[in-house]
Amino acid sequence: MASTTSGDALPSGGRIFTSFPDIFFIPEFVFGGLVWILVASAKVDPANPLGWVMFVSIFCFIMTTLWFFIFLCGKNQSSIWPALDAGYHFVAVVFFLSASVDLAYVTYGIGELYKSLSGPSFVPVAPVLIPLPAVQNIDEYLKIYRLYISAVVMSYVATLLYFLHAIFSAIRWKRS
Prior knowledge:
This protein is mainly α. It has one domain. It has helices spanning 25-41, 47-73, 81-118, 138-175. Helix 1 (25-41) runs antiparallel to helix 2. InterPro entries: MAL, Marvel, MARVEL-CKLF_proteins.
């Protein structure tokens, strides 16, 4: 007689590399880590919104690593783990979405500043309500702007990956 146990709800060991949605762990590492690297490689200035972006990217990277190793070692076989899995990924989605919006806003401000400083004549720009980084020359603004554009793209991709993982984890939780 076949029975369904709570241990069948979540994969463990090597099965996490082939099960859905757990296959999203690796891309979440990659894109979340890239956000962390790209923001940290530029000046983390202004500290307030970019500090939140750094916190979110580091927090989610560490928690996803911890989550991955818990799944890999098979310590996720209790009946509470499907709910915890869905809950963690929904929190990660909210965090990454808020960080993505903050990062996009800062990137927009740096882009507007670069356009106003590099144009042939002074072009008034919309006021940006955050202090922008003080750099030595205008080419540094372009470098920071390009790094932040890349970080914004990676941040939204990480948000999408966490969102998909959260949705399919919630479906798996409801089935268990």
